[in-house]
Amino acid sequence: MACTVSPDTDTNPAAGHVVDERVTKKVALAALVGTALEWYDFFLFTTAAALVFNAQFFVSQDPFVAAMGSFATLAVGFVARPIGGFIFGALGDKVGRKKILMVTIVGIGIVTGLIGLLPNYMSIGIAAPILLVALRIVQGLAVGGEWSGAVIIAVENAPVEKRARYAALPQIGSPIGTILSSGGFFGMLFLVGQTNFDSWGWRIPFVAAIPLLAISLWIRSRLSESPEFEALMESGETEHAPIRGVLKNSWRQILVGMCSALLGIGGFYLITSFVVFYGTKVLKMPSELLLLGTLLAAALEIGALVWAGRLGEKFGASKVILWGGVASALIAVPVFLAIDSRVPVLVVLAMMIGVAVLSIPYAVSGTALTALFATKVRYTGVAITSNTAGVISGFVPLIATALVAANSSFWPGAIILLVISALTALSGLFLPKLSIAEKGMKH
To answer: Which residue, of 8, 39, 326, 327, has the fewest CB within 10 Å?
Structure first.
């Protein structure tokens, strides 16, 4: 069953390369800045899908119908991600990691700015949701090549024995993006009030993506290309058909890798986007409280990611994924019980604890996924794997909303989190057998 590759075959073409950790830190920081913008843009959409898109673009007398239309648009972006993963992953394995990362970040930033300028349903009718879906698709395509490339370039510039530490840094872009996006909405709500926010205030954080893009481009232009990829280019050993090679030879790695990434992506959207909708529309709690919970959860997540990354360095990514999944399964029901209590302190604490625990396996998912694929097909393999997990994750808020509409209970959310956690925990058992053996690397 194992499809391992020995170090002598293809694992590390730059094995003789002496790693300068000063360069490693600069690359990891540049990758972090890019992923922060990526997730800022993407999370703006998820939060807006829960708060305003249902009223601005999907007009309906039934709030559940409007919400499902909004979350369906959210899911469309995830469906586009694997296509972007195929396209940009293959290009990244042919022309280099850095070049593709420059393209993807431009695509994400520009689309986000355009969403902020898009007329709503009341202005242009059915064209509004159609244009929103089109922009979401383009955004999804760009995101499909962004995260995987950022993690890979951080890993391939790092010492083998410290890859888990540096691979966790781009992951911090997720909570930073959440803080910036939720903070942007929270700040606008505070400054202009609910009425003005619903009318035009929600657009400001989207338009702000344009100046943030300029800053990110300047930082990312200073990235160093992966020494492993440069070695492949010099030896003429780059893969001409990486998609075919990955799908034919590494389908087991793709399946197990998908499960390992599922909790960090799908679980996060459940505890943030779905809970924001459930709390405001079903439990009738103020949106400011749910946004505050999201903000504090993201702040706590930064510490959890750094800590779990060090655990991965010490014990191996697979063990962290296994026990992180188990811990998340154990808290699934208590977290949703606390949210259902409507007690503000318990609601915020539940969101913080839920996000912190599911972030444990997420911290090392970059390490785990990059170890599953040989260098010459790594970008393609990681992009396909992570984005396929993203497709499933994108439908989590939609499924949870549909189930809640049927019975108005917290149980669908708790059960979905429990199932996702179990799948991620199980993947931790299979990862070591399917990963590439490299000296100094703990799986």
So the answer is: 8
Return d(Cα 357, Cα 334) in angstroms, integer.
13
- The pTM for the full model equals 0.80
What is d(CA 80, CA 359) in angstroms, rounded to the nearest whole number? Answer: 24
Whether the per-residue pLDDT at 220 is higher than 60: the answer is: yes
3-state SS string for 149-217:
HHHHHHHHCCCHHHHHHHHHHHHCHHHHHHHHHHHHHHHHHHHHHHHHHHHHHCHHHHHCHHHHHHHHH
198-213 b/e (C-beta count within 10 Å ≥ 16 → b): eeebbbbbbebbeebb
Q: What's the rounded Cα separation, in Å, for the pair 231 and 229?
A: 5
Phi, psi of 240 (to 5 degrees): -80, -25
SS3 430: helix
Q: What is the DSSP letter of 9?
A: I
**Rounded to 5 degrees, what are φ and ψ at 377?**
-125, 15
DSSP string, 239-299: -S-HHHHHHHH-HHHHHHHHHHHHIIIIIHHIIIIIHHHIIIIIS---HHHHHHHHHHHHH
Report the distance separating Cα 167 and Cα 151, nearest Å: 6
Answer for the pair 375, 227: CB distance below 8 angstroms, yes or no: no
Tokens of 408: 């108005």
14: three-class secondary structure by DSSP: coil
Q: What is the pLDDT of residues 192-210, one digit of tens each?
A: 888 898 888 989 999 998 8
